[in-house]
């Protein structure tokens, strides 16, 4: 991984000036687009479950998977920011069990205060992650903005009968989380200048890690449902996996958390989006959720619903593929009074 940069005043200005873009909560997003999207027989991803990407059937063997995402800077180093933003954008393709094939840059850049060299470094970082998963950068679009943003529009392919939906979990499935939580808190602490070099390296390595390798690790294992954990937090994205006939029991002590996230959460370094997430998710839970279970993640891990007979082999494969903090964190159960039970 490229050496982290901490002592460049211009780059420190870069992350602090960029701030944190406001994000709609899951309910607000659904209400905003619910009347716009219309059913098409070729659109085979659900319109009612906030799927991670759109899946559009071309023929019996091929569907295209489309997504886009962009973020403001979460680290000072523009190369690492590009890597993290690209990994975050690509993740939605992998969360559908698909292969990424092409990507296009989405850029908003403040050229009045930052040089073209910084923009180039951002896009080189993004290209690094695009190439890592075997996709091809085919272009993009840029505009002048006050707040710097970078991300990707990504197209993938998948067999229309094999993509991973987020609302198809089965009773008795075990739930696996592939990456630890806490990147929202630690990104906030980083912007405030609180993190040590080791703490920064830890959170950056997690955010820059592609979810791509999970596909190879699980290629011979049936994944009944999946989603990735990003801005709505672990519990927010978990709620998108619910149906009327199922609930989730979550073993809080088993949910992996980044080492220093608790310390900075206790200091109050919690992004606004995490509080919004906690408010949204509270109606699903029998107790008030831990704020770190609601922490707004950047390029978080996958939540995977896998039959119990396969789950432990899946976990071993994921750990061997580099997801060392992956854990079995819950189970799919019959309907109860509360949809998400924190145990």
Rounded mean pLDDT is 90
Q: What name does CATH use for the topology of the largest domain?
A: Phosphoribosyl-aminoimidazole Synthetase, Chain A, domain 2
Task: Specify the CATH class of the largest domain.
Answer: Alpha Beta
What's the number of domains? 2
Question: Roughly what percent helix?
Answer: 25-40%
The count of β-strands is 11
Write out the strand line-up for the largest beta sheet, numbering strands in chain order. Answer: 7-9-6-10-8-11
Shape: globular
Percent of residues in β-strands:
15-25%
Question: Could you give the topology of this structure?
Answer:
Blueprint: H1 9-18, H2 26-33, E1 54-57, E2 63-71, H3 78-95, E3 99-109, H4 116-132, E4 136-144, E5 149-158, E6 174-177, H5 183-191, H6 197-208, H7 212-217, E7 225-228, H8 233-239, E8 246-250, H9 261-266, H10 272-281, E9 302-306, H11 308-320, E10 327-334, E11 340-342
Parallel strand pairs: 3-4, 8-11
Antiparallel strand pairs: 1-2, 2-5, 3-5, 6-9, 6-10, 7-9, 8-10
Cofactor: Mg(2+)
Subunit structure: Homodimer.
Binding site for ATP: 23, 49-51, 69, 92, 140-142
């Amino acid at each position: 991984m490229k050496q982290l940069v901490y002592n460049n005043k211009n780059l420190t200005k870069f992350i602090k000036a960029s701030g944190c873009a406001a994000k709609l909560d899951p309910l607000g997003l659904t209400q905003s687009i619910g009347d716009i999207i219309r059913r098409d027989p070729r659109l085979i991803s659900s319109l009612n479950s906030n799927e991670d990407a759109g899946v559009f059937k071309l023929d019996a063997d091929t569907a295209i998977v489309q997504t886009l995402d962009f973020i403001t800077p979460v680290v000072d180093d523009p190369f690492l920011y590009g890597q993290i933003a690209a990994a975050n954008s690509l993740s939605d393709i992998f969360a559908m069990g698909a292969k990424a094939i092409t990507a296009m840059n989405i850029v908003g850049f403040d050229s009045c205060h930052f040089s073209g060299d910084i923009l180039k470094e951002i896009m080189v970082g993004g290209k690094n992650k695009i190439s890592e998963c075997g996709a091809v950068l085919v272009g993009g679009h840029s505009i002048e903005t006050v707040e710097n943003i970078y991300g990707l529009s990504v197209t993938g392919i998948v067999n229309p009968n094999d993509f991973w939906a987020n609302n198809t979990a089965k009773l008795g499935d075990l739930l696996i989380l592939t990456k630890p939580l806490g990147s929202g808190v630690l990104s906030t602490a980083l912007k405030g200048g609180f993190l040590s070099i080791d703490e920064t390296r830890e959170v950056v390595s997690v955010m820059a890690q592609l979810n791509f390798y999970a596909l190879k690790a699980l290629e011979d294992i049936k994944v009944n449902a999946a989603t990735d954990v990003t801005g709505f937090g672990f519990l927010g994205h978990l709620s998108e996996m619910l149906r009327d006939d199922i609930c989730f029991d979550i073993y809080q002590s088993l949910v992996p958390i980044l080492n220093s996230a608790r310390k900075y959460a206790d200091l109050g370094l919690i992004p606004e989006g995490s509080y919004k997430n906690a408010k949204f998710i509270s109606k699903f839970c029998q107790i008030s959720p831990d704020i770190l279970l609601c922490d707004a993640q950047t390029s978080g891990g996958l939540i995977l619903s896998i039959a119990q007979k396969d789950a432990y082999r899946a976990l071993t494969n994921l750990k061997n593929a580099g997801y060392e903090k992956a854990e079995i964190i819950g189970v799919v159960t019959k309907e109860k009074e509360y949809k998400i039970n924190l145990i």
